[in-house]
Structure formats: structure tokens, C-alpha cells
Amino acid sequence: MELAKRSLSRRSLAFALAAAIVGTLLGTASAQTITMAMAAQPDTLDPQVTSATAAFQVSKSIYDTLVEVDRNGDIVPALAQSYEVAEDSLSYTFHLTEATFHDGTALDAQDVVATLQRMLDPETASPKLSEFAAITGVEATDDRTVVVSLSQPAPALIASLASGWGAILPSEKIESGHDFGNQPVGTGPFAFVEWQRDNSVTLNAFADYYQGAPQVDQVVIRFVPDSAVQLQGLTTGEFDVIDTVASADQATIESNADLALVRDPSGLALVAAINTRREALADPRVRQAFNHAVDSQTVLDVAYGGGTPIGTFMEAGSPWMPDSIEPFAYDPERAQELLNEAGASGLSLDMALPQPYENHIQAGQMIQDYLSDVGVSAEIRIVEWGVWLSDVYGGAHDYDLTVIGHTGKLDPTGRLDGYATEADNYPGFDDPEMAAWLESGSQETDPDARRQVYTNVLQRMHDGAPFIYIGTPDRVHARKASLEGFWITPMLDSFDFRTAHFE
Amino acid sequence: MTRYLVGQIFSFLVTLWVVLTLVFLGMRALPGDAATILGGMDANAEQIAVIRERLGLAGSLAVQYSDFMGGIVQGDLGDSLRERRPVTAVLLDRLPVTLALAGMAFVLSLVIGIGLGLLAGLAPGSIIDRFTTLFATAALALPEFWFGFLLILLFAVNLGWFPVLGLPPSGLSWQASWHLLLPAFTLALPRSAQVARLTRAQVLEQRMSDYVRTARSKGLHPRGVTRHIAANALPGVLPLLALELGGLLTGTIVVEQVFGLPGLGATILGGISARDYPVVQGVTVLAVAVYISVNWIADLLQAVADPRLRTV
Fold first, then answer.
1. CB-based contact (8 Å) between A49 and chain B?
2. Pairing relationship of beta strands A269-274 and A80-85 according to DSSP bridges
3. Do B174 and A123 touch (CB under 8 A)?
4. Whole-angstrom Cα distance, residue B23 to residue B165?
5. ipTM of the complex
6. Phi then psi for B151, rounded to 5 degrees?
7. Helix or strand holding residue B291 (H, E)
8. Are A196 and B262 inside 8 Å of each other by CB?
9. Closest residue in A to B264 (Cα–Cα)
10. Is the N or the C terminus of chain A less surrounded, counting Cβ atoms within 10 Å?
């Protein structure tokens, strides 16, 4: 009896094991899941309390915005099927479409009102609050209409509403103090299932999505910081799409027929900031000389895997980039002349480079070499990201040179505001005339006049050269050749799985 | 016994207090705080001040310290600044991964270390003895991050036997044990080398003792002799095993990074870079507690295995 029981339990154990193995095999066989590997990871999935690109890259699939960015970078209707701007530009009227939240409640005007009020509430402490500061009132005039009133014209507001931080949340959940950071609920194409920090986020297709259900059943996003591991996973089939490709690996992927390398312009403006507060760096000629000394195309190719040089503080593909502003030519002789004119010799600089951004560090090393060709020596100091934010970018601005990428903004105010006032920008650039232009640009509602204002600003940023302008890197991601319809939003760099499917 | 226990608990509390105070001060000595990092490059000074207020970081160091210590006394580790939920929940999410990894690695190092050590010690000069010596030297010399990458390259990429990531997307489960094998082996390797060396030395020492000669000369079966040797050699290995267990916890930090495992190692590293003070402090409390209890357990086990130590 005792013996029989034991052998039975052993058999059932073997059965369970076999079942587990079969289950594993079946699980991997289902093709309707897209697995993506991304290098960074969100700090929270509450769109109103973060400024991290990684958070919006993931939350893009969970939430919708009133308006959104299409593949060309144009702002198009989304949850608002249309909107009107009042004659005096002091109010916007949004007409909502029919949509459903993942918790089953229907979208109505009250949700938009509650969302915007939550953004404006100091208790929320949103890092994006200033973008909404012109709003004086939000009112639901009927179930499907919302009127937003402004204290002054704010042409940049539509861009903020199209960005990840403009996501619309359900009012019932807002009122009950729901934890959107860990349990996000939106109207997006995919509903949140699970978030295992440092490991994965799982999202299921939302059948009632207002633009029609997505074509795959599930999206799994894995957090894989190492680009070598990402590539290994793509090669072995664990991942269907990866967001980081080292420049050295591009050729490997291109030569593999099962994989596809996708290259499009990112929204980044890469720069080496020059601390203009330093006496030796106060002369614009010195800073222009630095720009001529660096071969930015080579820096882009080697450190960032390719890209387009820029000549001012705006990403290359932006509609705001004036055609009239050319990148500085690589011309070490001209650089030397400018340095001589400015009477700068024997410069010895402190270059602070942010860890863990390997490509910025590599770019910094190349810039160090180029500068030494014109007799400027720079000593590299690697600083941890938190230190960089608090001591280099902020605080005492303890640096002479540093390399960083500025993320894409849909409206030029997001990129340029503060760059004419010494206290408000890290290179310490100060230009009262430009400050006046920025002030008028933020309120100018005539598109042509507004464009002219920002062209002037960007020309001043070119001439004054508070940065060594490097360029806009290509955003290179790789996918299985059979995966179609996945795209990354221009400027905002968020992931769009709505039309993604396997051929 | 009671006096002993009270003394142990007192020394545990003092150790915990000193370590926590050091971690508290050390974290705050780092430039930047959670508000600067949350605000990133987009928030201006004013907004960062608002975020700082919201996170409860605006108070003076003394206020923050007394809040923190007051919380600890009540068993409250506070809320994670980054994850905006209780630190206990964060730790409970991550602890199983680290425990599974450390547990697997411990068993592996035990099996490999004691197995090789016994075999080598019982037959000094044999091929297996020479292999063990070579293995121990090599395994101790290999850095974990390098060996881990090597294993991934060979078994996951070239042979495709294992997945490249340490955990399936669903997290810890039975299937995960397959994922965990490579990282556990990476972690176990240097430890098994140490265990093998010590076991071998203990066995050799026992082999020379008088009782073994007596047993042999009276004609005891060789298997019986081996049993005696093993029984007397293993208690000497126990203190090392306890140290190893403590070391496994720190070792997981490196190995978790290499294999992308979401355990306590990843948590403390992420916590440090996000200046998530409560999380770093919470992991510290846990690590100190585990370290000290492991040593206690080892003391107890040694008493069980070696009757001469049973004084009470």
C-alpha cells in the first residue's frame, strides 16, 4: 500500500513535469504576442508625474491624448475629433469622440476636465506643470464638449496635449485617488496587465479601442539595458523588436535576411554645452572656434551610429529648423584663426560626461581629440547621472564642457524657453534681446510671425554658440523582418503598436 | 543561554543602527536627490522644489533622520520615492528572485564543492584531485561578470539551450528555474571552489588522524572509514558555508546585472541612481538581518554537527 502510493505520487510528478514542458512549448508557439526589448525603463506609468521618455514610450499604448502626432510629425485629432480656437486665442473648444476606458466606463467631457485639473493641482507636482500654466479654467459645456480658457495666448498648448503627458484619465478613478503609477487605466489600444519592475510590462489588446482593436493579442516589453543582450535576444527569437543597436552591430543585422534595421531621424538635439560663465569661454569667437574644430558628422557616425549635423539648437527634422542656418563647417584652420583673434591660448578645460550614456562619453572623447588639434586641452571627468543633473545641468553648473542630448519637443517653446536668461539655462547664455523674442514667440498666434520669431532666436543661438552643435542622431531600431506596422512617434520617440502585426 | 541571546540581539540592533545611520548619511551625501532626478532636464528649479516638497524631502536632515528612525522602530520602512508604494511591497516583489538565485547557487556550490572536495581528499594525487585543484584555482580567478557573459555567449547565443535573460516575462515560476540555471552557476562557481578546497583540506587532515589508522588496521571496510572521515571533516566546512551564504547576497548584485534579473541587487542599484532613499535603506535592513541570522544558523548547525560544541 505504502509502495503503491509512493509510485503513484512519483508518476503524478512526472505527469506534472511533462505538462509543464508541453505548456512551455505551446506558450512560445503562439505568434500573436509582440515582445520588445527596451533599454531604459519607466519610473512610473502615471503620465502626470514624470518627465522620463521611457515612461511615455510605454504609456503611449495605454493612454490616449486629445490630439496626437502622426507618422509625419503632424498633430492630428485623437480623442478630440475636432477642436476650435477662439478668435482672441484665449479659449479652445474640444469635441470628443466616442471611446471607452479599460475599466468599461465611457469617455465623457468630465474625464477631460478632471484630467486637466489633476495636472494643474499643485498636489500632483507634475514636472510638466508649466506647460499648462496658461490654463485658467476647464469646463464641460455638455457631455462631449470641453472648453479650456487661457490667461494669455498659448500656441504651444496643443503640442503639450498631443504629448504623453497630455494623456486622458478616467474621472471616477481620479476622484477615488487611484494609483495610476502602478495600475494605469486609459482608453489606449492596450490594457495594462502587469508590471514587473526591472523585468517586463505586459499589455493585452483592448477589444473596444476606439480606433479598432489592435492586430496582435499582447505586447510584452522587456527591460534589457545591454545592447549586446538585446541583439542576442533578437537573433535567438526571444525579442521581436529591440530599441537599441550599437553602431558596430548595424552591419550584422543588415546582413541577416530574417532581421530588419530601421533608421529614421530621432527628435534629439545633441550638443556639447559650453559654460559661457567661464571667463575663457565668454567670448563667442572661442565658442564658434570650438564648433569649427569638431567634425560633427564623424562624431555622429562613430559615437551615435549615424545622423544629421545641426547648426543651432533644434533637431534636424523639426519644422522649426530654419533652412537658412547651416551647420558649422569642419575647419580647424578657421578655428585656430578665431582662437587667435580672441586671444585665447593654452586653454585647459574640464569636460564632465554623464554616466551611463556611453555614446555621450564616446562623443566627448572624440571632441577632446578634435579640440586638442587646435591646442585646447580638455580633461574628461565621468559623473553619475544624478550628479550630472544636480551639479552640472543644475546647481553650481560645475563644468566647462559637457555632452548631452535634448529630447524632442513638438513646440519650440519646450526647447528654447529659458535659453536667453543666464540663471535659467546651464550654458549660462544671456541675451536680453533674445529673451524678448522668446516672450513674444510664446504668445504669438500668427504662424508666419511666430516662425520668424523662432528663426531669429535660432540664428542668435547659432552665432552666440553656447553649444558645440553635434546633430540629430538617427534613431536605429531593429526588428524581425516579419514584424510589420510597428513605428516610433517622430519627436516624442514613443512606441506605437496599434498597427503592428506579423506577416 | 538567555544572557547569550540578549547579548546577540543587542549586538544585532547596534549593528543595524550603525549600518542604517551610515547608509542614511551616505545616500544624502550624494549630490542630487529624487526630486532632481524625477524632474530630469525638463523641470525648472521651481517645479523641482514642488516635487521635493511632495516627496517629503524638503525637511532638514535631522527631521528626516528622526522620521526614518521612528518609522523603523514601528516596523515601517516608508514609501519608495520612485515607485510610490510601500518599500515592504517593493522588497517582497524582489526578494523571491534573489532568494531563488542565491538558494540555487548555494545548493550548486554545496554539491560541486563538497563532492569534488571529498573525492579529491580521499584520493590525493589522483587525476580527480589534480582536476579539483586546477578547477579551484581557475574558478576563483574568474571574475563573475566575465564568466557570466561567457556562459550567455556559449549556451544562450551559440547553442541556444538557455534564454539570454535571467527571467521569463511572467516572472518567477517553475519555468524560471531553467532561466536561473546559468546565473546560479555563475554565482556558485567561485564559492564551490572555496568549498572544494576547504573540504579537501579537512578530509586530508582527518585521513592522517590516529582513529583512521586504527580503524583501518582493525580491518574496517573502506566505505566505513570514508563515512567516519566525512562525518568528522564536514563540521569544519560549516563556518565557511555560512560566510558563503552571506557572500552570495552581495554576489547576486553583480550576477543580477549581468543576467538582467529583477532581484534585490537590481533594486539597490536602481535605488541608488534614483536617490530612492527609503528603498536603499530597506534593502540594507534586509541584508543586515539576513547576514546576521545566517551566521546564527551556522553557529547552531555547527553545534548540531559537532557534539563537542554543545555546551548548553
1. yes
2. unpaired
3. no
4. 31
5. 0.78
6. -65, -45
7. helix B277-305
8. yes
9. A198
10. N
